[in-house]
User: What shape does this take?
Amino acid sequence: MIVRNLQKANTSSRRIVSPDGNWESTRLLLKDDGMGFSFHITTIYRGADFQMHYQNHLEAVYCIAGKGEVEVSDSGKKYSIEPGTIYVLDKHDRHTLRAFEEMTMACVFNPPLNGKEVHNAEGAYELEAESISE
Ligand code: 9YT
Assistant: This one.
């Protein structure tokens, strides 16, 4: 069994702060854990407005707190995000995420992240990345 605690993980190398200033994410479960997915608690900072395109991953994002919207780039369709909303990028959808308030999200990635990933120029994570030490 694996048991971890978010408050403790927040003070470890599991907490990744995005260099673009839009988000931070504490990665509670990663590839090395062998579950076939990774699980993160992500904070999207208030005012963030950025595009992502997870070409190499599927992602599900559940909103725990805060308010925002996600816009699907191909269709221009916008969906409000509030506590209880889940959006699922089942088609590797290019999308823009906007935070009207700071948002707390639970994120699941398949395949799992290694640990240190931040977005590349296209808003994707590479499949190869450094893992974390603890
Ligand atoms: C919702 C989203 O994709 N935010 C970017 C950070 C990502 N969830 C992560 O790496 O944990």
